[in-house]
């Protein structure tokens, strides 16, 4: 979601299409609107001239840089360097014309610059010929996207992996670039042999500080393992073949005491590791948590390699978490330059991003350069325009819940209610069942007690019991932590209205129930002598 209000100075949200080669460039799209007052701050200014990935010529003395079909953008070629310098000069000229200074330049996937601007400068730029959009450098947040391989028909005798020759061939020769919160390199899903220095047709190898891989499409991927806080260059391997971080804007805006992250590619939150391993984690990795075995897990393309571009960051207590547009653009620019085959972007906002948003324009160039862009549809809805990343040049992916882990609440009156659970190692019960509202400390309100918020439960009334907690205010896992603190042995988490059920990893055995069963359980828990059991299967 966006945590800052934003208005993009563009001519609406119509889908942007590339004009035919040699046709006039769009001129002053931003000036087509009557603009509101802009607050001073950081902005990204997108210009009409094509970036390296899509430039087909037309500027006197500067040859085309758009790669041939099946080839990657070569940012090191002399023609590319000359055109990139020309774009940078144009960006500086546009900024200087309104008395501003470009602090960051983008030329590979999008022709844009970042700058700190006054309200008057934003207004002036919005009327400048050749300016496509003036966009606040806003904060974007991570989105969940879970798709078990069985549900997608990847595994099994009739699955996609078998048709490809097995999971050892699924994604072979492909590099997935993940723009997210970074990576936890110790994850078993990312394990692999150390990188050697001998060139190979199939295996990534080191060349000095660079990591090179000959890909299935005949091109080379060239990345690196960027050292930083709690992250060394030797943490990359033949699975995790590149890891870089982009945080100039976020680190500049967030003082050290407000950060809960690493100034490195290391994942401070877990979302990036989740998305990277979902996309390309190794096949057949055993997973156990808190004494519970969940079987094996696999990425969708287990033979693919992972390249990480950390552009999202974590603030203390979640405050200020996310990634600024300027950092995200830098990550996309680098991913295109490195030569990834796929960009995974599980990031978005509470409302649909305009197709002229600079991130969406960067994806247009990436797609034009032959890169498959997969972007999350978001966690919002079902209100109109709540689906994000809908530009026609990206694949917009919606999330769904697949529930392989079931738990059941068996009440003392014999009635059973099925829900979700990943935290029951063995049957819990029969134990006294009590609502959080009835077991609250005297200083807590009935509502806070019902939510099982921190320090609201009375140990004398909770010890040895199963507690019924309402979903709503506060994190779900914090509720089970409060039950454990007060001495409870289990929790039933209730949706009071129809919502999704989530199989979180809780501090005590927990079953999450939806309506209408959740309401019946709450009513029963309020009766004298109520008891319950929590079991793993119905």
Description:
- There is one protein chain.
- The chain is built from eleven helices and 25 strands.
- Helices cover 19% and strands 23% of the residues.
- The model is unreliable at 1-36 (pLDDT under 50).
- A seven-stranded mixed sheet has the order 20-19-25-21-22-23-24, sandwiched between helices. The protein has a six-stranded parallel sheet with strand order 10-13-6-15-17-18, sandwiched between helices. Strands 2-3-1-4 form a four-stranded antiparallel sheet, with helices on both faces.
- It is globular, with a radius of gyration of 26 Å.
- The protein has 538 residues and is α/β, with parallel strands linked by helices.
- Helix 6 packs parallel to helix 7 (358-368).
Q: In a nutshell, what does this entry contain?
A:
Helices cover 19% and strands 23% of the residues.
Helix content: 10-25%
What are the segments in which pLDDT stays under 50 over at least 5 consecutive residues? Answer: 1-36
| SS field, number of helical segments | 11
Bulk shape: globular
Average pLDDT, all residues:
87
**What structural class results from the helix and strand content?**
alpha/beta
Distance between the termini: 37 Å
Number of strands: 25
Question: Biggest sheet, strands in spatial order?
Answer: 20-19-25-21-22-23-24
The main pleated sheet reads as: 7 strands, mixed
What would you report as the Rg, rounded to the nearest angstrom?
A: 26 Å
Note the beta-strand portion.
15-25%
Topology of helices and strands:
Blueprint: E1 41-47, H1 78-97, E2 104-106, E3 112-117, H2 119-126, E4 131-136, E5 139-142, H3 160-164, E6 175-180, E7 205-207, E8 210-214, E9 220-224, E10 240-245, H4 248-253, H5 271-280, E11 285-289, E12 292-297, E13 305-310, E14 323-324, H6 325-338, E15 342-345, E16 347-348, H7 358-368, E17 372-376, E18 395-397, E19 406-411, E20 416-420, E21 428-435, H8 446-450, H9 459-462, E22 466-470, H10 476-485, E23 490-494, E24 510-513, H11 517-525, E25 531-535
Helix pairs in contact: 6-7
């Amino acid at each position: 979601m966006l945590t800052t209000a934003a208005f993009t100075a563009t001519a609406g949200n119509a889908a942007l299409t590339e004009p035919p080669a040699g046709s006039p460039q769009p001129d002053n799209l931003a000036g087509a609107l009557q603009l509101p007052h802009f607050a001073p701050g950081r902005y990204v200014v997108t210009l009409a001239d094509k970036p390296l990935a899509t430039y087909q010529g037309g500027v006197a003395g500067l040859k085309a840089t758009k790669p041939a079909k099946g080839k990657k953008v070569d940012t090191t070629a002399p023609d590319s360097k000359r055109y990139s310098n020309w774009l940078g000069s144009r960006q500086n000229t546009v900024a200087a014309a309104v008395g501003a200074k470009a602090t960051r330049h983008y030329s590979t996937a999008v022709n844009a610059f970042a700058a700190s601007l006054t309200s008057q400068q934003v207004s002036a730029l919005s009327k400048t010929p050749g300016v496509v959009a003036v966009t606040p450098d806003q904060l974007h947040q991570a989105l969940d996207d879970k798709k078990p391989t069985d549900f997608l028909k990847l595994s099994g005798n009739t699955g996609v992996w078998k048709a490809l020759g097995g999971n050892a061939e699924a994604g072979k020769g492909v590099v997935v670039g993940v723009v997210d919160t970074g990576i936890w390199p110790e994850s078993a899903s990312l394990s692999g042999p150390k990188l050697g220095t001998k060139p190979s047709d199939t295996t990534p190898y080191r060349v000095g500080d660079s990591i090179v891989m000959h890909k299935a499409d005949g091109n080379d991927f060239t990345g690196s393992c960027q050292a930083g806080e709690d992250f060394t260059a030797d943490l990359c391997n033949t699975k995790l073949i590149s890891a870089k971080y982009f945080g100039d804007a976020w680190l500049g805006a967030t003082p050290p005491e407000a950060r809960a992250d690493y100034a490195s590619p290391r994942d401070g939150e877990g979302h990036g590791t989740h998305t990277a391993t979902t996309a390309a984690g190794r096949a057949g990795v055993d997973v156990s948590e808190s004494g519970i075995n969940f079987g094996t897990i696999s990425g969708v393309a287990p033979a693919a390699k992972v390249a990480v571009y950390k552009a999202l960051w974590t603030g203390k207590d979640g405050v200020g978490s996310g990634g600024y547009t300027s950092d995200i653009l830098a990550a996309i620019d680098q991913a295109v330059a490195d030569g990834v085959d796929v960009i995974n972007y599980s990031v978005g906002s509470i409302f649909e991003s305009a197709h002229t948003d600079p991130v969406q324009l960067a994806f247009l160039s990436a797609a034009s350069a032959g890169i498959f862009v997969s972007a999350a549809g978001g966690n919002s809805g079902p209100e109109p325009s709540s689906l994000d990343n809908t530009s026609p040049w990206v694949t917009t992916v919606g999330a769904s819940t697949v529930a392989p882990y079931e738990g059941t609440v068996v009440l003392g009156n014999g009635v059973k209610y099925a829900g979700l659970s990943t935290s029951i190692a063995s049957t819990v019960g029969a134990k006294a069942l009590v609502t959080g509202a009835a077991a609250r400390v005297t200083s807590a309100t009935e509502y806070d007690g019902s939510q099982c918020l921190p320090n609201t439960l009375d140990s004398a009334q909770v010890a040895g019991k199963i507690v019924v907690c309402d979903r709503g205010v506060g994190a779900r896992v914090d509720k089970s932590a409060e039950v454990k603190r007060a001495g409870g042995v289990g929790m039933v988490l209730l949706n009071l209205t129809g919502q999704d059920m989530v199989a979180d990893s809780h501090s005590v055995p927990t079953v999450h129930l939806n309506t209408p069963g959740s309401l019946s359980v709450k009513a029963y828990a309020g009766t004298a002598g109520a008891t319950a059991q929590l079991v793993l299967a119905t």
